[in-house]
Amino acid sequence: MTAPTRIIQWVAVMIAAGAMIAGSTLLPAIAQPFNKRYAGHEAWAGYHISGLAPEIRANVLRYEKACGTPFAATHAFAVPTFPGAQAVTLHYESLWCAARGGGICRNGNCLHEVYVRDHNRYRLSFRGYVGEVRVDPSGHVSVTDKDY
After folding, report:
1. CB atoms within 10 A of CB 124
2. CB–CB of 110/92 below 8 Å?
3. What does the domain layout of the chain look like in residue ranges?
4. Angle at CA 137, nearest 5°, toward 140 and 89?
5. Is the pLDDT of residue 28 over 70?
6. What is the rounded CA–CA span in Å between residue 103 and residue 90?
7. Per-residue CA distances from 119 to 78, 90, 140 (Å)
8. Distance from C-alpha of 79 to C-alpha of 90, rounded to nearest angstrom
9. What's the CA gap between 86 and 116, in Å, rounded?
10. How far is residue 32's CA from residue 1's CA, in Å, rounded to a whole number?
11. What is the pTM of this model?
């Protein structure tokens, strides 16, 4: 084997070793959904729950013990029903429940709740395992089941 051939083989081995080291260092960060960030925002995070109004947060935290840790949600978990609305819809498919390996769902439908602001507090207006929940400006709740 000539010297140039040995050098080429050595360079190839070093490149492969560097790729393995880089891959083993970066892969866990890439593979973990809870480390996923974009524009300084954590996709799955506890602050999506802790930032809720106290009365809504208290109801959500009832699931924490059964779900286990990490107990987190995406920004799609709590959604105002429409601009300027006095209602919030919770979409439990966007809540991470480790014990269930995903959201709080059954029979193809996930738990949804609608909270309506009444003076200075939110009160539960609707709770059910449905495909989707919509609230119109008059406060009427309509639900749909998913078609499978």
Report:
1. 13
2. yes
3. 3-31, 41-144
4. 70
5. no
6. 12
7. 20, 20, 18
8. 6
9. 6
10. 45
11. 0.69
Look-up: residue for tokens 């991470």?
Answer: 96
- The values of phi and psi at residue 108, to 5°, are 80, -5
Secondary structure element (H or E) that encloses residue 121, with its range: strand 121-130
- Residue 112 forms beta bridges with which residues? 91, 128
CB 75 within 8 A of CB 41: yes
Q: Across the strands, what pairs with 145?
A: none
pLDDT in tens, 58-92: 999 999 999 988 889 998 999 887 666 788 999 99
Contact 131, 113 (CB under 8 A): no
Q: Phi-psi category of 101—alpha, beta or left, where left has phi over 0 and alpha has psi -120 to 50?
A: left
How confident is the model over 30-60, as pLDDT tens digits?
334 444 444 555 788 889 999 999 999 999 9
CA distances from 61 to 54, 114, 129, 146 (A): 10, 16, 18, 26
Cα-based angle 12, 15, 16 (whole degrees, multiple of 5): 85
